[in-house]
Design brief:
3 domains, six-stranded antiparallel sheet, alpha+beta, 2-enoyl-CoA Hydratase, Chain A, domain 1, 713 residues, seven-stranded mixed sheet, Pdz3 Domain
């Protein structure tokens, strides 16, 4: 979330005025040492909760850096780690003295071990894999020790390569079966591929992938590895503080402009591959519908080329393989959240912002009409607030829904990762008369209360807010404020993401008076925390829904509490605010909803599915026996097919576009297709169905008690 820059600009002016960083000061130092000095200075002076760089900090940097560059433990030996450990308690002193000895030693050894690895994988893949042997591999590499010697390391590579090849081998065996069936039907006596040939081709495919991977690694420069070291240091402060190298800063600026050229998914590095943590509306992944949050990309191939295994690869490097010019095809090998492997081909495209904007729909139930607004993020043009932004767009959609006779409103913030603080305050003001919306506190400073000062209420009818585990930051501010006012009923996950911090991007060139090293990049820095108007923080705890319903992510580690080094939860004094008095039987409505959800068969099936997905995720010991693999694959498919009936659900609700949008369909068939698909999915959405039930209860209870469900100006 981007904050008001006035405070930071003042601080930065002071920093520049008092900072002794000059070209002369570092004339004998290289760019790497300058970066270390600059970044630690900024962290110490401007981070919301700077950490003491001591022995404990040193140990964390040591362990995390080794894990970052060798997550699958297939390069370093135990003797290497023992040698590195002489620096385990010295890194705090090295950082303070801009000494990069530890990085240099680890980097040089890594390059050496990677050369060893090239010989190892060639030797391993020169021999056939015996898939009849009863053996397995533990892919939870954190539990595995480093190899004691090169013989043990080669055995680790053998299992990892056998595991990497197993899926390809299965695909080729399946092709043999199909070819044999086709030959039997057609009477074709031409020889089909033998199992031995299939196994050989599978190994050759894996070898080609590794060849390309190491060619790619060989092209990396020392500075690329050094950025990883810098970010290991930075990441110790909190998971949202990050150093952008110059190239990465350019990518960040491009992302802020709202256009993405690629597949339209945000990824997170995992030892098993690149995990999809967000799907961008309107992008290739969103349109294709083959991938979902939680899937892990393990191989990436360009059209007509063998795929490259990205397991263990740096995330930035994996993304470079996945991204590409508009119109080109990328082939992804994906491990689904249910454990199955799939190959998905996507045509890269420029991901337009249109599907990231607010959109609305009419919901028809009997002779009643309700409105739904979906808000994917709290967007804004930070350079020109008069341009399109989330607050003005939602206000416009509310007005349109009112004109079409909506008797209740659902604001869908599921998967909304946040955005602009200013838009949150303005948006909250659409639903309350006036008063505080959020409290913000800087380190060592008093709190600031952000108020809605406009007494007009654009929507004074029943309101429901939908959230899930991926609703974060600005979404949590809005949901929390409406919950604290008792203005809306919040339906969704047990708790939202739990990101209660504010970041600002600071170009490092702004801090030095002169610099002979060129562009130094930038640091995204946590500068503030925000708090609910009741005084509680959303950090870690998120927003707890009034009506808790399970979803696919209920047991998967996705929240702030599952990140490394999150800031702690705390609370401050509450703001002065008055409860919304427009609802009668607010608590009874929530109780009725909980009772309905407790007996809903679709909800029970979703809960069952969520537990099964967690079980699949926790099974890290994988059999390398082909017969066992086939049996497990068969069982997983059977279970996966069982849960496909989740998509057969029909809420019996009718969804339609607003009149203004229907007029656009004659000129934009793509928009019509997007909306038709959205409405089809909404009709299967049990959460939306329950939201409508809650709107009905709020409306009927208030009418029954002889009071309008609104507060008039």
């Amino acid at each position: 979330m981007k904050r008001n820059l006035a405070y930071v600009l003042v601080i930065m002016l002071v920093a520049v005025a008092s900072c002794s960083f000059t070209n002369k000061s570092f004339e004998n130092d290289d760019k790497d040492k300058l970066l270390i000095d600059l970044i630690t200075y900024v962290l110490e002076k401007l981070h919301y909760q700077p950490k003491e760089i001591n022995d404990d900090f040193s140990v964390s940097v040591f362990e995390d850096f080794v894990d970052v560059i060798d997550p699958t433990k297939r390069y370093f030996l135990a003797s290497d780690i023992a040698e590195f450990e002489q620096y385990k308690f010295q890194l705090d002193d090295q950082i303070k003295n801009t000494d990069i000895t530890f990085f240099n030693i680890v980097h040089e050894r890594l390059l050496e071990r990677m050369q060893d690895a090239k010989e190892i994988y060639k030797e391993v893949l020169a021999e056939p894999f015996d898939y009849s042997v009863d053996e397995d591999i533990n892919i939870n590499y954190e539990e595995e020790p480093f190899a004691a010697d090169k013989g043990e390391l080669k055995e680790r590579w053998r299992k990892q390569l056998k595991y990497a090849t197993l899926g390809t081998y299965d695909s080729k065996i399946s092709r043999i079966v199909k070819d044999q069936e086709d030959a039997s039907v057609d009477g074709d006596d031409n020889a089909v591929l033998t199992p031995e040939q299939a196994e050989k081709e599978a190994r050759e495919s894996t070898e080609a992938t590794l060849d390309e991977f190491f060619d790619f690694v060989d092209d990396l420069q020392r500075k690329d590895w050094f950025v990883q070291y810098v970010n290991t240091i930075v990441d110790e402060f909190d998971p949202h503080t990050y150093y952008f190298a110059p190239d990465d800063k350019e990518k960040f600026d491009m992302s802020m402009s709202g256009k993405f050229e690629g597949i339209g998914a945000r990824l997170q590095k995992k030892p098993e591959g690149a995990k999809i943590v967000e799907i961008i509306s309107g992008g290739p992944v969103w349109r294709d519908q083959s991938l979902e949050v939680g899937d892990e990309i393990i191989k990436v191939g360009q059209e007509g080329e063998e795929p490259i295994n990205i397991v263990g690869m740096r995330l930035d490097d994996a993304i470079k393989l996945i991204k590409g010019p508009q119109g080109t095809v990328v082939n992804l090998t994906v491990r689904k959240v249910d454990g199955s492997l799939e190959e998905v081909s996507l045509t890269r495209d420029v991901v337009e912002l249109e599907e990231s904007y607010a959109k609305s729909a009419n919901i028809i139930k009997g002779d009643e009409t309700y409105g739904l607004i979906n808000l994917p993020k709290f967007y804004v043009d930070f350079e020109d607030y008069s341009e399109r932004n989330a607050a003005t767009d939602v206000a416009q959609e509310v007005e349109r829904l009112k004109q079409e006779g909506a008797e209740g409103l659902i604001l869908d913030l599921r998967d909304n990762g946040g955005g602009s603080l200013k838009t949150v305050v303005e948006m909250a003001g659409l639903f309350i008369k006036d008063g505080p919306v959020v409290q913000v506190q800087s380190s060592g400073k008093g709190k600031d209360v952000y108020d809605d000062k406009d007494e007009r209420i654009q929507w004074d009818g029943p309101l429901v807010i939908l959230v899930n585990e991926l609703s974060a930051s600005a979404s949590e501010i809005l949901a929390a404020a409406m919950q604290d006012y008792k203005r809306a009923v919040v339906i969704g996950s047990r708790q939202t993401f739990g990101k209660g911090t504010v970041q600002n991007v600071i170009p490092l060139n702004n801090i030095v008076r002169s610099n002979e090293h060129g562009d130094l990049g930038a640091i995204k820095l946590t500068t503030q925390k925000f708090y609910r108007i009741n005084g509680g923080s959303t950090q870690l705890e998120g927003v707890k829904s009034d009506v808790v319903v399970p979803d696919r992510y209920s047991y998967i580690d996705l929240g702030e509490r599952d990140q490394a080094n999150p800031l702690e939860w705390d609370k401050i004094s509450p703001a002065d605010y008055d409860m919304w008095d427009g609802y009668i039987d607010y608590d009874k409505t929530i109780a009725n909803s909980k009772a309905r959800m407790a007996t809903n068969t679709q909800i029970k099936l979703i809960e069952e599915n969520a537990q099964w997905l967690k079980k699949q995720q926790d099974e890290t010991v994988i059999s390398l026996n082909y017969d066992t693999y086939l049996q497990e694959k068969k069982e997983d498919k059977k279970t996966s097919d069982y849960f496909k009936k989740l998509t057969d659900y029909d809420s019996k609700l009718t969804f339609s576009s607003l009149k203004y949008e229907q007029e656009l369909f004659t000129q934009d068939s793509t928009l019509r297709e997007r909306r038709d698909r959205w409405h089809k999915n909404l009709a299967k959405d049990v959460y939306v169905e329950e939201a409508v039930n809650v709107l009905q209860d709020l409306k009927m209870n208030n009418i029954k008690n002889g009071k309008l469900a609104s507060v008039k100006d």
